[in-house]
Backbone:
């Protein structure tokens, strides 16, 4: 009952296999022919060009294809949990630091989200891998957690202060050049 193929000769098996391959090739070729005829008829309509989306996507840099979507999702998550006015405050601080790039706010929020997300991982590292325990482990974990969460803000504040210092020290020279230019006529 189960030995059905045993009674069929090898030439019949090869013939069935050839018929199967021929049917598969026919199906593929008809699909290709249908697509080609569809493209040719679409091209006749006002020089319509069918664009290959895959090739267009592959022309973009790899950072735009991989990092940008991840950063956008992390930024959306960060914007969802940030308090009102925080994004505007970050934007004004970034402009004050000399960074007027529109993507800088999104990157900053993404860095903050990653810092908050890495805090539990850091605590596991301190207590599990490093084997710290007691008050020392708590202090090291808390200190590293604070650095991860508030570090980006501290770095941004430092850049704002440095830029303001540069402006304050360079302003007298600029004013002096303006006075000399006005006096010279």
Residues:
């Amino acid at each position: 009952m189960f030995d059905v193929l045993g009674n069929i000769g090898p030439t019949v098996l090869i013939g069935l296999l050839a018929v199967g391959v021929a049917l598969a090739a026919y199906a593929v070729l008809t699909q290709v022919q249908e697509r080609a005829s569809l493209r040719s008829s679409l091209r006749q309509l006002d020089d319509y060009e069918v664009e290959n989306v895959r090739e267009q996507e592959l022309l973009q840099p790899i950072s735009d294809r991989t990092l940008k979507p991840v950063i956008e999702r992390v930024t959306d998550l960060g914007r969802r949990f940030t308090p009102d006015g925080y994004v505007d405050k970050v934007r004004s601080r970034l402009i004050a630091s000399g960074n007027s790039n529109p993507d800088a706010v999104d990157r900053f929020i993404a860095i903050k989200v990653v810092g908050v997300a890495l805090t539990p991982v850091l605590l596991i590292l301190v207590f599990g891998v490093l084997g710290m325990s007691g008050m020392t482990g708590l202090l090291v974990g808390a200190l590293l957690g604070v650095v991860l969460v508030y570090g980006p803000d501290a770095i941004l504040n430092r850049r704002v202060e440095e830029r303001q210092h540069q402006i304050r020290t360079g302003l007298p020279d600029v004013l002096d050049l303006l006075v000399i230019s006005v006096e010279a006529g």
In short: The longest helix spans residues 134-184. The CA atoms of residues 11 and 64 lie 56 Å apart. The two ends are 111 Å apart (CA to CA).
